[in-house]
Amino acid sequence: MKLRGLYAITDSQLLAGKFLAYVQAALEGGVTLLQYRDKSSDEARRLREAEALRNLCERYKTRLIINDDAELAARLGVGVHLGQTDGPLAPVRALLGRDAIIGSTCHASLELAEQAASEGASYVAFGRFFNSNTKPGAPSANLELLDQARIKLHIPVCAIGGITLDNAAPLVAHGVDLLAVVHGLFGADSPLEVTRRARAFNDLLQIK
Ligand SMILES: Cc1ncc(COP(=O)(O)OP(=O)(O)O)c(N)n1
Ligand SMILES: Cc1nc(C(=O)O)sc1CCOP(=O)(O)O
Ligand SMILES: [Mg+2]
């Protein structure tokens, strides 16, 4: 199955007090991948929330990805996203098995992306493409990189960083498969608006 569509990423601060309601609203609108991103060290809460997300994802046939934490991903039988400082990919592929989705942050580097692909990444993520509320200091990437990536890479390409409904179209036109979004999806005033945004991202990607 080729990975293509909206990649919703949770944010513990942004979703405080409305976590499951907003995630469910996004799934209702259509989400290809859901990433549980929680940078805290509260292991008990992380396990509880990740289990709740796994149950929700099963209902909506969405694939769950855990940010940073391969052990938690293995425990739940789901995928993982690894950044450049989150450890090597190959042992995680061995731990999670060949069918697991493993993503790799490659910033604006095709070399990192080719290396990740050779180590068994399921997709590579480039970013950030725009100003990001969630991670303002992330290194920036541009559209030309996506053109190169389309030529050189044979795995799905994800774009991240400040993506909204107003700026996502050029990313799609330059061949992005996955649009990874925090604020542009979950920074909404109501669950209904989250669902509307998810549907609109899918329309941009021509996902039914
Ligand atoms: C889809 C996606 N792309 C990039 C990242 C960033 O990963 P990383 O560089 O490890 O930074 P943190 O998210 O861990 O702060 C991501 N999480 N997801
Ligand atoms: C987690 C993350 N990683 C990035 C990178 O460029 O690697 S940008 C980012 C934050 C994405 O959130 P928002 O959609 O609110 O900008
Ligand atoms: Mg990380």
TrEMBL record:
Cofactor section: Mg(2+)
Keywords, comma-separated and alphabetical: Magnesium, Metal-binding, Thiamine biosynthesis, Transferase
Pathway: Cofactor biosynthesis; thiamine diphosphate biosynthesis; thiamine phosphate from 4-amino-2-methyl-5-diphosphomethylpyrimidine and 4-methyl-5-(2-phosphoethyl)-thiazole: step 1/1
Record bears the keyword Magnesium: yes
Cofactor: record remark: Binds 1 Mg(2+) ion per subunit.
Keyword Plastid part of the UniProt annotation: no
Binding site for Mg(2+): D68, D86
Domain Thiamine phosphate synthase/TenI: from-to ranges: 6-184
Example of a GO MF term: thiamine-phosphate diphosphorylase activity
Family in the record: Belongs to the thiamine-phosphate synthase family.
Name of the molecule in the record: Thiamine-phosphate synthase
Organism name: Pseudomonas hefeiensis
Gene this chain is encoded by: thiE
